[in-house]
Amino acid sequence: MDRRTTIKWMLAVAAATQGIKLPARALGGASVGASDAVTVTHGYGTDPKLTQTYKPGDLWPLTFNSQQRSTAKVLCDLIIPADASSPSASDVGVVDFLDEWISAPYEQQRSDRTVVLEGLAWLDREVAKRHGAGKSFITLSHAKQTAICDDICFVDKAQPTFVGAAKFFARYRDLTAGGFYTTPQGRKDVRYVGNVPLPRFDGPPLEVLKKVGLA
Amino acid sequence: MPFIESTALDGQTYDVIVVGSGAGGGQTAYTLTLDGVRVLMLEAGRKYDPAIETPMFQTPDLAPLRSDSTPDKPFGFYDATIDGGWEVPGEPYVQSRTDAPGRFDWWRARMLGGRTNHWGRISLRNGPYDFKPRSRDGLGFDWPISYEEMAPYYDKVEMLIGVYGANDGLENTPNSSPGCLLPPPKPLVSDLLIADRSRKLGIPVIAGHRAVLTQPLDWKTIPAKLHPGNPSAQQILADAMKRRAACLWATPCGRGCSVSANYQSITVHLPPALASGKLDIVTDAMVHEITLDKAGRATGVNFVDKKSGQQRHAAARVVVLAASACESARILLNSKSSSFPNGLANSSGKVGKYLMDTVGSGVDGQIPLLEDLPPHNEDGASGLHMYTPWWLYKEASKLGFARGYHIEFGGGRGMPDVDTGAGLEWLTGGSYGQKFKEDVRRYYGSFVYFSGRGEMIPNERSYCEIDPVVKDKWGIPVLRFHWEWSEHETRQAAHMQKTFAQIIEAMGGRVRGGVEKDGAKAIHTGGSIIHEVGGAIMGADAKSSVTNKWCQTWDVANLFITDGAPFPSNADKNPTLTIMANAWRVADHILTRLRRKEI
User: Is residue A94 part of a domain?
Assistant: First the structure.
């Protein structure tokens, strides 16, 4: 293996300690309620059993309440909807993965917890602002949902008032993709064909070499 | 009964104690025991069995956080490392500076086999220049030995552990003797593209060298070459070699290997050493002090039995430290007495001095030519199939830095992980929905990375010492690190950045995130490449070095060091293969001296 993973982790830690974590005001002033406080717990430690199968909730308590969960589901399916090739993000357990992730007792995940919970709350506030009190993101039509997403889907092009929300959307999209492409359905979607024992390794087929101009 | 409890040591005196079970300790114990020497190995971590503990073929969705890195498992959940990382609970260390340019982060792996369980398996020989760097450019230190003295041991280690590669005959990139190397794996399409475009820039690309079995080892002929005149050792080694399977071309080497297709001390060095009947191992044994008799000879070591918390002593005629460079220095510095108030074997004042890591810097890029390729299996040997050795020896005077680097690179359609699909906005403009799915399909497999791995020149400001206050959870005083790069390193890092961007552009690609022109920002933090060596350097005289050419301490005749601590330089060749070759050379010397009853 190469060192990229580790370097990425080190950079992430450095970034987290340098204040990439979004302050509440960046998302419009909401604060995380007491019920959202992280339950003090430990991670899986330095000697976890590696050959065991783990599910979200096995190692630390989960976070989402029903409103957060519903909003999380709608948003991750806006990012990765079902199509002819593969199911939607929520179909393959991405909401559970997101909940596991933001509930984990590590620095990166604690930082993401703030971003995600604030961001989900921001969506409902933005909906109330645009469509009146009593409305929430999950009750909107698909067109109205995407209208909001269009405003926050790219940090570099977002209006100044939406930059904080756009940072949330970027992180949420990364996590949703991470959850989706690590499932069997996600691997199939990108046509990954490895992780099987082979009697020999033949290298790239001729058609591949032809396509890049090396044959 | 090879694995024993610490209580079984009472009243026993071994021929040799080896502290540590990784590359240096494993090779030392192997060489000594197969020639009949009775060895006690002390390992600070727990016993570990790769045959049943290795997560072969597990996918990220079966792990917490989709197996992503955490402070508990810095290389990801499935990494083989147990009780290790840059932070180990209960085992602090002190940094004199914590800013990136002045920090040294210390990696440890408290487990049987040490860091050989997870390492990259990259196995490059130092070349002739690398043993005499000061003679070439006036900087750092020469080794008190030459390439010619080390070469036979490189041959032996390559045959023993199994290294794939090819003999390309490039400058200061030595060929192996015939029959040493296994065939290299076929290149990936990204390797071939990188090779083609690099060569157009005058940058060579050749087969990588890694300790992975691309075919079964030749157990019929190698044992006789490695152990001439020793039929019992030949038989033991042949049996051990037969038990190792060839690579399955799947599942990352960093997880370890349950079929022993790659090198880990515990699957390659220790089984034959144990089969000899001459090796006892005590795990969970935290060595902190070398004991001496009145004549100033080492009598053994004191250690904490971590399972009981008890202090124990182990006795032997010879003590070999192979605890990793910094840990060996720590043991010496903590072995204080009225005769050695500054620590043992430290009359030169050089113990802990001249720590070196490897210069590291990297650039990623996206290559349109690699988009939307027909699906095919690119797991391969899970590490370098090809690489670039340092190619600018003739230009050294014009570069602004004295020493070279090699390039590790890669790409391809590897198993998707939690970052697949992340951070694509620079390519997608922030797509989501159906367009995002199409974008991920398009870009998956089209990224390449380049990592430079360069030589650091030892300096007076990069060292470790004992902190006067802080102790670990067993009460053992801990190390305090001091670190500083020179311009030879930072300029080299800037050169890496520029070069990697040129290659990416020559491939028609785009650099991700830009090129860092400031080498001081481009260089990875000290200790992050985990190639630390030095701290007890070997040399030609007792004033300027800690050991002689046999890695025997100048001050204590029956005390040797066979990890990276005696390295007087840290060539851009990654240290592990040289640690093993050197350990074999030193162990041969110990054998001779033991037979002559000189130690």
Answer: yes
Domain that holds residue A128: 4-39+51-194
Q: Convert B402-436 to b/e letters by CB count within 10 Å (16 or more is b).
A: bbbbbbbbbbbbbbbbbbbbbebbebbebbbbeeb
ipTM above 0.85, yes or no: yes
Q: Is A181 on the interface with B (CB under 8 A)?
A: yes
Find out whether B450 and B500 touch, Cβ atoms under 8 Å: yes
Q: Is A203 in contact with B100 (Cβ distance < 8 A)?
A: no
**Residues 48-77 in B contacting A (C-alpha not used; CB under 8 Å):** 52-55, 57-77
Residue B540 exposed, middle or buried by CB count within 10 Å (0-12, 13-18, 19+): middle
Instruction: Say which of B75, B374, B410 has its CB closest to residue A6.
Output: B75
Which residues 514-553 of B are in CB contact (within 8 Å) with A? Answer: 524-525, 528-529
With beta carbons under 8 A apart, name residues in chain B contacting A86: 437
A–B interface: beta-carbon pairs under 8 A: 264
Task: Say yes or no: B512 contacts chain A, CB-CB below 8 A.
Answer: no
Is A212 contained in some domain? no
Nearest CA in chain B to A77: B433
A105 touches chain B (CB under 8 A): no
Main-chain dihedrals φ then ψ at residue B430, nearest 5 degrees: 90, 30
Q: What is the pLDDT along chain B (599 residues), one digit of tens a residue?
A: 499 999 999 999 999 999 999 999 999 999 999 999 999 999 999 999 999 999 999 999 999 999 999 999 999 999 999 999 999 999 999 999 999 999 999 999 999 999 999 999 999 999 999 999 999 999 999 999 999 999 999 999 999 999 999 999 999 999 999 999 999 999 999 999 999 999 999 999 999 999 999 999 999 999 999 999 999 999 999 999 999 999 999 999 999 999 999 999 999 999 999 999 999 999 999 999 999 999 999 999 999 999 999 999 999 999 999 999 999 999 999 999 888 999 999 999 999 999 999 999 999 999 999 999 999 999 999 999 999 999 999 999 999 999 999 999 999 999 999 999 999 999 999 999 999 999 999 999 999 999 999 999 999 999 999 999 999 999 999 999 999 999 999 999 999 999 999 999 999 999 999 999 999 999 999 999 999 999 999 999 999 999 999 999 999 999 999 999 999 999 999 999 999 999 999 999 999 999 999 99
Contact B211, B262 (CB under 8 A): yes
With a threshold of 0.90, does the pTM exceed it?
yes
**Chain B contact present for A182, CB below 8 A:** yes
Question: A143 in a domain, yes or no?
Answer: yes
Domain count, chain A: 1
Q: Are the C-beta atoms of residues B264 and B394 closer than 8 Å to each other?
A: no
B92 to chain A, closest Cα gap in Å: 15
Using DSSP's 3-state secondary structure scheme, residue B198 falls into helix
A43 neighbourhood in chain B, CB within 8 Å: 70-72
Q: How far is it, in rounded angstroms, from Cα A204 to Cα B411?
A: 13
- Using the Cβ of A31 and the Cβ atoms of chain B, whether some distance falls under 8 Å is answered with no
8 Å CB contact of B528 and A51: no
DSSP 3-state of B405: strand
> Is B528 in Cβ contact with A6 (below 8 Å)?
yes
B267: Cβ–Cβ under 8 A, 6 or more apart, which residues?
A: B50, B113, B244, B257, B260
Give the one of B65, B369, B425 whose C-beta lies nearest to A101's C-beta: B65
**A154: closest chain B residue by CA:** B430
Residue A82 belongs to some domain of the structure:
yes
- Among the listed residues B569, B578, B572, the one whose alpha carbon sits nearest the alpha carbon of residue B139: B569
